[in-house]
Amino acid sequence: MSKIFFLIVLSFISHLSFSQLADNNSSKEDTSDILNAYDKVFTKAEKMPKFIGGINALEDTLTKRLVKYNEDLKKGKVSYELRITNTGMVSDMTAFNESGNLSFANQLAEVLKNTSHMWEPAMQNGRLVDALKKIRIIFDKEKLHVKELN
After folding, report:
1. How confident is the model over 68-102, as pLDDT tens digits?
2. Are 102 and 95 a contacting pair, CB within 8 Å?
3. Which residues contact 89 (CB under 8 A, 6 or more apart)?
4. Would you say 82 and 90 are in contact if contact means Cβ atoms under 8 Å apart?
5. How many angstroms from the chain centroid is the CA of residue 50?
6. How crowded is residue 29: how many other Cβ atoms within 10 Å of its Cβ?
7. Do the Cβ atoms of 104 and 62 come closer than 8 Å?
8. Region 6-23: what's the mean pLDDT?
9. How many C-beta atoms surround the C-beta of residue 82 within 10 A?
10. Are 107 and 54 in contact (CB under 8 A)?
11. pTM above 0.85, yes or no
12. pLDDT confidence of 145, banded at 50, 70, 90?
């Protein structure tokens, strides 16, 4: 009788060991999926990237860094989609020239590229992540205005 009891207890213990092993493997896969999510570029994050100092600081920086202001330009509007990395760098950019002057839009894009490390990166679940930041820049002879689109 004690031998049968011993075999039952032994099989029960081995069953628990294997079931725990399976659970550990599945949690490792779940963790791996979560970590891989941070390799992606977020279009929406808990905290989106922002220019250090805010929109007014971005407007001032862009205005000061423009090499020349096209005298023929009366007004214009350009939207940009910037990829801000988890270190605050501008790594990619897409411009949508809605109106105005193409050479000015290109010059403005060069100035935006040089604002790397002037951005606070996006944050998702307490981790710094890459994210897309959309802005519209409206300009006229007197002032340059920046509007956040996301």
Report:
1. 555 555 577 899 999 999 999 999 999 887 776 67
2. no
3. 116, 117, 119
4. yes
5. 10
6. 9
7. no
8. 48
9. 22
10. no
11. no
12. confident
